[in-house]
Amino acid sequence: MKKTNTTKKKATARKSVARTTAPQKQQCFNPWSFSIYVYWFIILFFIAATFYILGRSHNALRVPSDNVEVIETSAPISEETLKQSADYYASGRDNLVNGDIQSAIVDLNTAVNSNPDDIDAYILRGEAYMQSSDYRNALSDFNTAIEKDPVNAVAYYDRALLNTRLEDYTSAMNDINNALAAQSARPSDILQMRDLYAKRGQLNLWTKNWEGAIADYTNSLARPDGTVTPNVYAERAEAYTALNNYAAAIADYATAVRIISEQIQGAQTSAERETMSSAAMSYFEKSAALNLNLGNVDSARSDLESAITIAIALNDSDTVTRLQGLMSEMDAE
Predict the structure, then answer these.
(1) In principle, which of 100, 137, 179, 209 could form an S-S bond with 157, CB 3.0–4.6 Å?
(2) Single pTM value for the model
(3) What is the spatial distance between Cα 220 and Cα 230, in angstroms, rounded to a whole number?
(4) How far apart are the C-alpha atoms of 126 and 157, rounded to whole Å?
(5) Cβ 241 vs Cβ 249: under 8 Å
(6) Which residues contact 128 (CB under 8 A, 6 or more apart)?
(7) For position 140, what pLDDT does the model report?
């Protein structure tokens, strides 16, 4: 009997607990649910803040309207400073022309410091550095000029010359191509398209792109601007020779000699006349060899005789002896 009463009391107690705890379960607080709301609130807050910041940035980047005062970030260069920069540039140019390279660099340093946006001062100082074999500073100046003015044909051309000296022919070719494009877009009075094509032809010749060299030299000679130089014909003759087109090469050497004969009268110094005469002598000798390969013995002999005459006029006894030896060998055959 005691056991039965005890059992009934436990059952009654469980029912009582069930009745009292059931309502409490419905009112139980769930911390995870609250955390989700908090997290979403934080996320929404950051999203709103982000859009607010982006909106402020967008407004800051807008072009100001006419009634908004624009504050300059740097003071403009005064007229006096610009004049000082121009004067030092002119002085540096004169010193460079006269061969006083170090004085030119000093003057151009002042010009650049006075006016950091003077593209011509960077280019001219780069040329001075290049003449003094300071290739690192020369390259730095040409790079700066191109960064400040990406359509400056002179800067590209000068950097091409520098890269040629450094035997970086790939970079030199890229620079010449850019110089040609820049000259077409915004012609410079300093450069001529004839000279740019001739320089690219020379690069193609040195890299043994014979067809490209011939095309560029032909384009150079077809241009109406500038003065025709005999070396363009002579260098195209070299490309023709490499392709075994001896007849075209002989014709180009003959034209080069004719131009020299016309220009030598206007040479200012005896040194210039000697240089031009030596070039003509070399062209006659090369033409003689080509004529001999083609079986044109009489033409070859005539070319050698002309070369010997020039060598005698230049008092070049060694060359006279060598050319006379070639003439004797040719006659013996």
Answers:
(1) 179
(2) 0.73
(3) 12
(4) 12
(5) yes
(6) 92, 96, 101, 104, 105, 108
(7) 98
